[in-house]
Design a protein that fits this description.
By secondary structure, the protein is of the alpha/beta class. It is built from 14 helices and twelve strands. The strands form three sheets. Strands 2-4-1-5-6-7 form a six-stranded mixed sheet, sandwiched between helices. The chain has a three-stranded mixed sheet with strand order 3-9-8, with helices on both faces. The chain is flat and about 65 Å long. The protein starts with a strand and ends with a strand.
């Protein structure tokens, strides 16, 4: 999964990126134009437990790829995204809007004041405008070619939605309709999470900036943290972090909480494969059928799919081994249409 981190200049966006991923991208360079990319391993205690049992040669956790896009350059009215950012964000699966909630007189907000509600609205308007421009150009071309097909009809609905001031995120499209416009990578249709970046003075306070209320009204998931403090903790030795977080009242580790929220937002689950060669977590969307899940491992497995030998993680652990799980009747043979469950331990049978 690929997640794009966006926001206005001087919001602490790259600080958040470093804190979540453990990267060391330069911060405080207001004119920086580089895109920062890092991979975040998804902690999973189930993988660790299976590794203890199977003693594999290799352990592989699920991953998120993060893309930290620099804010737009320009004079006058500031923007959060420009053409370069649009190109980078087109292919991400989800967006995280880092919203500044901290005051710092030495580092002024590009819009002149700290106002989370305004920033959320402004960036959403940028998403909508960018999508509308793409749609209008495509519609003009289709009309010129006299191609008023399914794509044309769906784009007209998208245009009407955007012109009414609404994002495409809330537009109900059928499966085939969604496929017909998927290649455009519309920003206002992508899953969006708000991430409030607070100052140390706000730790332990309830919604000091009003961002919780904004997220609730917009129906968007929200993660709130103190970016500077989280980065400081992330740079400590792993065995020291828990005690330090407890002393500061920071609660659960930020990256763990963030990943859980991201999984909920994107409707993701993990299935597991386990054996002596490798124990691995694989990320899929909830509702994925067994044959499609097999294709996540390799297209040949999907093409030659026969059956999925399946056992729930909890049943396997309770039994202690695959042999005992089979004896207890917990291991099932499922077909192509089986809907995968979070924590399924799977062995795919296939023939190519």
């Amino acid at each position: 999964m690929k997640v794009g981190i966006v926001g206005f200049a001087r919001t602490g966006k790259t600080t958040i990126f470093n804190a979540l991923t453990g990267a060391h991208a330069a911060v405080g360079t207001f004119g920086a134009r580089d895109v920062n990319v890092a991979v975040l391993k998804v902690p999973d205690s189930r993988v660790e437990r299976l590794a203890e049992i199977h003693k594999p040669k290799k352990i592989t956790l699920a991953e998120f790829q993060f893309v930290d896009v620099p804010p737009a350059e320009g004079s006058g009215e500031e923007k959060a995204i420009d053409e370069a950012a649009l190109r980078e964000l087109k292919n991400v699966d989800a967006l995280v809007h880092v919203v500044r909630c901290f005051a710092n007189e030495q580092v002024m907000h590009p819009l002149g004041s700290v106002n989370p509600a305004r920033d959320v609205q402004r960036l959403e308007e940028e998403f909508q405008l960018a999508d509308l421009i793409v749609i209008e150009k495509r519609l003009a071309r289709l009309e010129k070619e006299n191609k008023k097909d399914r794509e044309y009809e769906v784009l007209k609905r998208c245009q009407e939605t955007l012109e009414s001031g609404k994002s495409l995120r809330g537009l109900d499209l059928g499966e085939q309709e969604a496929l017909s416009v998927a290649g455009f990578g519309f920003l206002s249709r992508k899953s969006l999470m708000l991430l409030g970046n607070y100052g140390e003075e706000s730790i332990g306070k309830e919604d000091p900036s009003g961002l919780d209320a904004v997220a609730l009204e917009a129906g968007l998931p929200l993660v709130s943290l103190c970016g500077a403090m989280e980065l400081e903790v992330a740079q400590l030795a792993e065995e020291e972090r828990a005690a330090f977080r407890q002393d500061l009242g920071l609660g659960e580790e930020s990256r763990v909480f963030f990943i859980r929220k991201a999984y909920e937002m994107l409707g993701l689950i993990s299935f597991l494969t386990a054996g002596e060669p490798e124990v691995r977590a694989w990320t899929i969307r909830a509702g994925t059928k067994a044959s499609r899940a097999a294709g996540v491992i390799h297209s040949d497995i999907e093409r030659g799919f026969i059956r999925a030998e399946t056992v729930a993680y909890d049943d396997f652990i309770a039994a202690g081994s695959m042999v005992k799980a089979k004896e207890a009747g917990h291991v099932r043979l499922e077909g192509k249409e089986y809907e995968m469950k979070d924590g399924d331990i799977i062995h795919f049978r296939f023939n190519v």
